């Protein structure tokens, strides 16, 4: 492509939109212009730089090469309203919302997992759910090496997955509990989240599974392999940033902790954190280690005591970065590197 720098629009000025701006700047994305769009005009300051946020209108996408839509889980995102307008004006839309993920004509992509799915896109690419993205960073390399037949996943999801206001709600609830005050505002959670965990944080749908659990199952099948049998329990925990996931897998080929570790050490975007390779003096992945970190951390790799075809591991990733903003920017970078931006 003849264009060496790109005009990029970030649509959304909430938690994910802010992280998209931060990721673009930190990775040195080749920006000719960065437009920040939202519902209303206002200033937005990110890491000391103030951006003039413009109202999202069809004309705001004129001349834009890449439009990153921050998306809103559980609601119809801005891409439903403005995505086609942006594409019609020549932009590639990368949508973090849930609206197009399961559309068979829209690639659903984690670059380290299935970058080739970007080939032949029609101007729209979907980002997976944050929980799925973190899971696949650990699961995909093991599937390629050993053939995953079954996976049982239990999640420990940070409140920021519900938006920036959820962090404020957690802080307020925690302060009230410590002070012995009643909690008067649940902040959108079904029950108290401070000093508590919620397995009922999402709408329960078919077969008693929540919509979040169905997202992980369906998105994993679309991006990795529809033959994998998945059982998922999603749980909201009182942490700000960083989704943790406990994963048990059954594989076609024999698997050991050592052989799995060897595969994961070499996997792009993954860092193994254990007693052999601690991070900041800590030998186990945890949310405090991943906030603002590009790598997804994997540890607690251990064999199943009753089968040489099964293994457990623990994976933690920044849900606002690899689960959203970083992954979207990496998709854009991949499209540029492979000269697939045109459609």
List the helices and strands and how they pair.
Blueprint: E1 6-11, H1 15-26, E2 31-38, E3 42-46, E4 49-55, E5 66-69, H2 78-88, E6 92-95, H3 111-114, E7 124-126, H4 130-146, E8 148-156, H5 164-179, H6 211-223, E9 229-233, E10 243-251, H7 257-266, E11 270-272, H8 287-290, E12 296-303, E13 310-317, H9 321-337
Parallel strand pairs: 1-2, 1-5, 2-4, 5-6, 6-7, 8-9, 11-12
Antiparallel strand pairs: 3-4, 8-10, 10-13, 12-13
Helix pairs in contact: 1-9, 4-9
Question: Your description of this structure?
Answer:
By secondary structure, this protein is of the alpha/beta class. It has two domains: 6-127 and 324-337, Rossmann fold (3-Layer(aba) Sandwich); 132-319, Dihydrodipicolinate Reductase, domain 2, CATH 3.30.360.10. It has nine helices and 13 strands. The mean pLDDT is 96.
């Amino acid at each position: 492509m003849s264009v060496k720098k790109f005009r990029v629009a970030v649509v959304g000025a909430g938690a994910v939109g802010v992280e998209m701006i931060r990721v673009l700047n930190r990775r040195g994305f080749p920006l000719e212009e960065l437009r920040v769009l939202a519902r209303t005009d206002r200033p937005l300051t990110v890491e000391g730089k103030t951006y003039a946020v413009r109202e999202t209108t069809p004309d705001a996408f004129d001349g834009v090469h890449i439009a990153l839509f921050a998306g809103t889980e559980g609601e119809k995102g801005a891409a439903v309203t403005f995505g086609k307008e942006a594409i019609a004006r020549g932009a590639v839309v990368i949508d973090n919302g849930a609206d197009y993920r399961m559309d068979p004509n829209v690639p659903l992509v984690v670059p380290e997992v299935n970058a080739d799915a970007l080939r032949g896109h029609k101007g729209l690419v979907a980002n997976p759910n944050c929980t799925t993205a973190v899971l696949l960073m650990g699961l995909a390399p093991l599937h390629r090496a050993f053939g995953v037949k079954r996976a049982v996943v239990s999640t420990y999801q940070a409140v920021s997955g519900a938006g920036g206001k959820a962090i404020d709600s957690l802080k307020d609830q925690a302060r009230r509990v410590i002070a012995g005050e009643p909690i008067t505002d649940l902040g959108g959670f079904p029950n108290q989240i401070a000093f508590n965990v919620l397995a009922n944080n999402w709408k329960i749908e078919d077969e008693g599974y929540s919509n979040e659990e169905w997202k992980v199952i369906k998105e994993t099948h679309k991006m990795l392999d529809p033959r994998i049998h998945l059982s998922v329990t999603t749980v909201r925990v009182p942490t700000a940033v960083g989704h943790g996931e406990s994963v048990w897998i059954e594989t076609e080929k024999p698997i050991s902790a050592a052989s799995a570790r060897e595969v994961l050490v070499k996997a792009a975007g993954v860092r193994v954190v254990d007693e052999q390779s601690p991070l900041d003096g800590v030998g186990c992945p945890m949310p405090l280690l991943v906030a603002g970190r590009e790598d997804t951390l994997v540890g607690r790799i251990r064999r199943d005591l009753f089968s040489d075809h099964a293994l457990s591991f623990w994976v933690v990733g920044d849900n606002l970065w690899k689960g959203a903003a970083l992954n979207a920017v990496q998709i854009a970078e991949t499209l540029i590197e492979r000269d697939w931006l045109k459609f």
